[in-house]
Structure formats: C-alpha cells, structure tokens
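Section: protein folds

Sequence with per-residue tokens
===
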Amino acid sequence: MYSFQDLVAIRVADDLRAQGIEVRHLIGIVAHILQREDITLDGSMPPKRTVITDGRTFMDIDETVRLAEVRTTPGQPPKPLLVVPLGEIVARLQRTARQTLAGDAA
C-alpha cells in the first residue's frame, strides 16, 4: 500500500520523467517530497507551491518567487528550467483519494 506522499512523489517523478529528466536525477526530489510534513491527504498546501528543476538540482518555491530570479546566476547565462505544479498535483490527488474513499464507504 502506498502512502499519500508516495503517490505525490510518483506523480511528480512521472511528470519530470515525461519532460525528459533522467531517472537517476529524480532521487533528490522524491526524497524531498517524502520528508515534507505538509504533504498529507488532509493537509492544505498552498496551490501555487511549485518545484522547478534544471534536471540535476531542484528548488521548491511559492508564488512570491519570480522565475527570472531563479533562472539567472550573476555572470552565467540563464538556465533552462522545468516547472512542476506541486500544489496542484497535491490538490488533484487529494480530490481523487477522497472520491475513492467516499466510494469505498458506500
């Protein structure tokens, strides 16, 4: 049986894999998600919580951070970034899980 955090980690990894990230680079994001205490079936993660990655490193941001600030490092060209809407993924999985649980109870 999978925990809710497992389901979120699988979904995020699947999204990143579909965008071309190699499996070996997904270990960090999966570990990060599994350690977060705010990813629960009944939790309330901000819907604008986002994970961005350049394929090797990742950053978990909220709506107050501008992507332009993340993409640029002084003296270096902008990095291409992939964006995963973590808050939206959590909310969607919460709705699906609740619907499934409600159907099982009926």
About this structure: The longest helix spans residues 86-105. DSSP finds four helices and three strands in the chain.
